[in-house]
Design a protein that fits this description.
The structure holds 2 protein chains of 2 kinds. Chain A is α+β, with helices and mostly antiparallel strands. Chain A folds into 5 domains: 4-136, HPT domain (Four Helix Bundle (Hemerythrin (Met), subunit A)); 151-348, no CATH class; 356-409; 412-592, Heat Shock Protein 90; 597-736, Beta Barrel (OB fold (Dihydrolipoamide Acetyltransferase, E2P)). In chain A, 48% of the residues lie in helices and 19% in strands. Chain A contains 25 helices and 21 strands. Chain A has a 5-stranded mixed β-sheet. Chain A has a 5-stranded mixed β-sheet with strand order 19-12-13-21-20. Chain B is an alpha/beta fold. Chain B has a single domain, classed as STAS domain (Transcription Regulator spoIIAA). Chain B is 38% helix and 26% strand. Chain B has 4 helices and 4 strands; from the N terminus they run ββαβαβαα. A 4-stranded mixed β-sheet of chain B has the order 1-2-3-4, sandwiched between helices. The longest helix of chain B is centred in the middle third of the chain and has 16 residues, at 53-68. The termini of chain B are far apart. The chains are: A alpha+beta, B alpha/beta. The A-B interface holds A 1, 185-186, 191-193, 196-197, 200, 205, 207-210, 212, 215, 217-218, 221, 223-224, 226-228, 230 and B 20-21, 24-25, 27-28, 32, 35, 52-54, 56-58, 60-61, 63-65, 68, 85, 88-91, 94.
Chain lengths: 738, 111
């Protein structure tokens, strides 16, 4: 049976559950107190992972997760108090499950000794806590496992035989499970056998009877329909919920009755009642399984008869409740289960899982559509047919909307990436012996999924850098009159067509002298060079620069910051740094909203077309003798403000003479303004960014290319790069060249 | 693999390889062909490498049909795969065949 697609879903879902588990565990650790909801949440995650793993026969995952689950269960019942030790054990265990799932995802079937021994060590520690709790509380633990006796009946030290005398409980010490699989189970790709194999992992099948009652005659039998039924006498210490969950995937359509050990006959009665046509045979089955003795069976059948005579109309369920036979815990569990299922279906309706590749394909097609639309608009305009022009323009309006919503499909909240850092902050602060809180704001800010994936690594460097170099040890902080707990902030917000992600700390700030010293030592600057503060700070982005006195395994290897810088630059983003000595530092990463399509402003120099991202265009002015600045060839006067500008003709060495009146496009990026001098302003234009080939990677001032409606190629200007080039003095260009 | 040996004293069928949902329809067709054979029917299972619920169902179907006709059925030479699944499902008692690696004895039974 091909389980591959289902397995992939399992892996994806497990990883999600594990992420969730990590988040809640960390919250639990922060709160320090026991929260029932959170424990329930973690338990559910572990439980689901184990349950589904069982179906795929992933024994190592089932086995290990079982220990985790048992401990969590005891915690939920309040038998184990949560402590720092336990939480950190649970976190390590979570990591281990994660490693197991990832090994599975990688298709690695080989035995991994270190993983195995890690698992064993963790299992032993888990078991230690479990034993401790059960040792204290053995009697009630046993009762819970049995799950069938109300508390009043629990008399410690009384043997099961004596208990039997209380009313009509049966002798059977085991569970009885009655199973009828849904007819479609085989067609849905599941094999009833796998459920039984899984059942064997949580207990022992004492006796099983496979029923062929439902099999029709040979002519009518359809080989893909499942006709099998099972009556199982099952020995297990698991609770009812655990056993029920074995059948989670088929529960909705199957007939499943699980009768706890030493239950009252009424439970068996209900079973007999629910399957009326085969009851005589079923009675025999129950007897064959050893679930009922023959005397008990007779008594059950007699009871059923009298009950039927007494109250024909009452459903048996009511009779049981009236007779006080159902257990509230069991009932509660059933209700909780139902609402959980409902909750799950509700969530499913809200989102659809789509293959990222399909999404990329859609975006690509929309990109082509935008180009074709622009071409059509051009032709329609040239034809002079006003009706056609009008309909093309409304068509293009729609294309624009399609583009926007297609791009929105790729937008993901940055929060999930931020949350991952909780764990990093926790681990690193333990490692460094520093006390650090992480504060997350702007988690709902949306960003293109590709950008988010690529920003995680640079962000990790910055976070670690802040913790390692920025935030001081507690005693030093106290000495400086700060609170002993350091603070690390992650923040995100939208700002004029880009997204800003900030990593800030309240640590010592950058040490100017130290940086300068180091830079001289490394030969990055000359000893007599005069630099302002910002230039000095920017030195840390230079290749091969590291300030840490001792090289830790976190940062300080000197490969960090320049890699961060170039990674971000590859996303058409920038990184800036502010720092105040003694108060802390702040890194701001500025990223474009999306990588694929932008609104552009088309300009021309001579015959060549260029596109400037519209978000960055502030205004267009003319350059003439009135606003030129005397003696400063590359500056102009913009309403009293000095504006540096650059002539694209000179920059790209284009031919032709400048016009007498040139146009200036004023652009802004990251708080800096600059002018771009061009011949003609053509207008707004939707642009699909086509990346330039590898060989143009180091080309300054050009961010990509696009195809115009006419089929011509236009270069997209890299405004951040140009602005930097214009405003940067020599030294910081060295620093940022990496 | 599906091989029928029509002997004087019985009809012996060798079933091989996979008895799974993928081959179930084909297998059922073939089994239908021998279902009404008046001789005692013996299914040799030594070559079965894979068995799933649909295969189990087919075996149970054959047994049920043979019983209906008051004709005998025996399963013989169970492969390890078959044995382990029979054990899981408690089917050894259902088919009542002696599980040994030789020709099954006692070919007539009622249940």
């Amino acid at each position: 049976m091909n389980l591959e697609p289902a397995l992939q879903t399992y892996i994806a879902e497990s990883l999600e559950q594990l992420e969730e588990m990590e988040r809640v565990l960390l919250e639990l650790e922060d709160d320090g107190e026991q929260s029932q909801d959170k424990l329930d949440e973690i338990f559910r995650a572990a439980h689901t992972i184990k349950g589904s793993a069982g179906l795929f026969g992933l024994d190592d995952i089932v086995e290990f997760t079982h220990g985790v689950e048992s401990l969590l269960d005891l915690m939920r019942e309040g038998k184990v108090k949560s402590s720092e030790d336990i939480i950190s054990l649970l976190i390590s265990s979570r990591d281990h499950i994660n490693a197991l799932v990832e090994k599975l995802a990688a298709g690695d079937e080989e035995e991994n000794e270190s993983l195995k021994s890690e698992g064993n060590t963790l299992s032993k520690r888990l078991q230690h806590f479990i034993d401790e709790a059960l040792g204290k509380d053995e009697v009630s633990g046993e009762e819970d496992a049995a799950g069938s006796l109300v508390e009043a009946e629990v008399i410690p030290g009384v043997s099961p035989v004596e208990r039997m005398e209380h009313g009509e409980a049966v002798e059977n010490e085991n569970w009885h499970i009655s199973l009828r699989f849904p007819p479609d189970v085989l067609r849905e790709g599941m094999d009833p056998l796998s459920f039984l194999y899984y059942l064997e992992t949580i207990g022992t099948i004492n006796h099983i009877v496979t029923l062929d009652e439902a099999l029709p005659s040979a002519n009518e039998m359809d080989v893909e329909t499942c006709y099998l039924g099972f009556e199982i006498n099952f020995k297990s210490d698991a609770d009812k919920e655990t056993i029920e969950d074995v059948f989670e995937f088929v529960r909705d359509e199957s007939f499943i009755r699980i009768i706890p050990p030493r239950s009252r006959i009424a439970f068996y009665l209900e079973l007999l009642d629910a399957l009326p046509d085969t009851e005589m045979r079923l009675g025999d089955m129950l007897q064959m399984c050893g679930s009922l003795t023959s005397a008990e069976l007779e008594r059950a059948l007699a009871m059923q008869k009298t009950m039927r005579e007494k109250s024909v109309d009452l459903p048996l369920g009511n009779i049981i409740v009236e007779a006080g036979m159902t257990e509230t815990p069991v009932l509660n569990a059933a209700i909780a289960k139902q609402s959980k299922v409902r909750e799950n279906t509700f969530r499913e309706k809200q989102s659809v899982r789509v293959d990222a590749e399909k999404l990329d394909e859609l975006i690509n097609l929309v990109g082509e559509l935008v180009i074709a639309g622009a071409g059509t608009a051009l032709n329609a305009g040239a034809s002079g047919n006003t009706v056609l022009t009008e309909s093309v323009s409304s068509l293009n309006g729609l294309v624009e909307q399609v583009r926007d919503s297609a791009l929105r499909l790729r937008m993901v909240q940055v929060g999930a990436t931020f949350t991952r850092f909780r764990r990093v902050v926790r681990d690193v602060s333990l490692e460094l012996g520093k006390d650090i809180d992480l504060i997350i704001t702007g988690a709902e800010t949306e960003l293109d999924k590709t950008v988010i994936e690529k920003i995680a690594d640079p962000l990790m460097h910055l976070v670690r850098n802040s913790m390692d170099h920025g935030i001081e040890p507690s005693d030093l902080r106290l000495a400086q009159g700060k609170s002993s707990t350091g603070m690390l902030k992650l923040n995100a917000y939208h700002d004029s067509g880009s997204v800003v992600i900030e990593v800030s700390d309240d640590g010592a700030g950058l040490n100017k002298e130290k940086i300068k010293q180091k830079a001289i030592e490394k030969g990055i600057i000359e000893e007599d060079q005069v630099l302002d503060d910002q230039d000095i700070y920017n030195l840390i982005f230079a290749a091969g620069f590291s300030t840490a006195d001792s090289v830790s395994n976190l940062s300080g290897r000197g490969v960090g910051m320049d890699v961060v810088k170039s990674n971000i630059a590859a996303l058409r983003g920038t990184v800036e740094l502010e720092s105040t000595p003694g108060k802390g530092s702040k890194f701001s990463i500025r990223l474009p909203l999306t990588l694929a399509i932008i609104d552009g402003f088309q300009v021309a120099v001579n015959e060549a077309s260029f596109v400037i991202p519209l978000d960055m265009v502030l205004e267009c002015v003319e350059l003439d003798e009135f606003n030129e600045v005397a003696n400063k060839p590359n500056y102009m006067n913009l309403r009293g403000e000095v504006l540096p500008f650059i002539r694209l003709r000179n920059l790209f060495s284009l031919s032709g003479q400048p016009l007498r009146r040139e146009n200036v496009v004023v652009v802004q990026y990251g708080g800096k303004k600059a002018g771009l001098v061009v011949d003609d302003l053509i207008g707004e234009f939707q642009t699909v960014i086509k990346p330039l080939g590898e060989i143009f990677n180091h080309l300054q001032g050009v961010g990509g290319s696009t195809i115009l409606g006419s089929g011509e190629v236009a270069l997209i200007l890299d405004v951040p790069g140009l602005i930097q080039q214009m405003s940067a003095p020599d030294i910081s260009r060295t620093a940022t060249a990496a | 693999m599906f091989k029928v040996d029509k002997l004087k004293s019985k009809c012996r069928v060798h079933i091989g390889d996979e008895m799974t949902i993928y081959d179930a329809a084909e297998l059922k067709e073939k089994l239908m062909g021998v279902l009404e054979d008046s001789r005692p029917l013996e299914l040799g299972l030594s070559r079965v490498t894979e068995l799933d619920s649909s295969g189990v169902q087919l075996l149970m179907l054959v047994k049920k049909e043979r019983e209906k006709q008051n004709r005998s059925l025996s399963l013989s030479n169970h492969s390890d795969e078959v044995l382990s699944i029979f054990e899981l499902l408690g089917l050894a008692t259902h088919f009542k065949d002696p599980i040994v690696m030789q020709k099954a004895a006692g070919e007539n039974y009622e249940s």
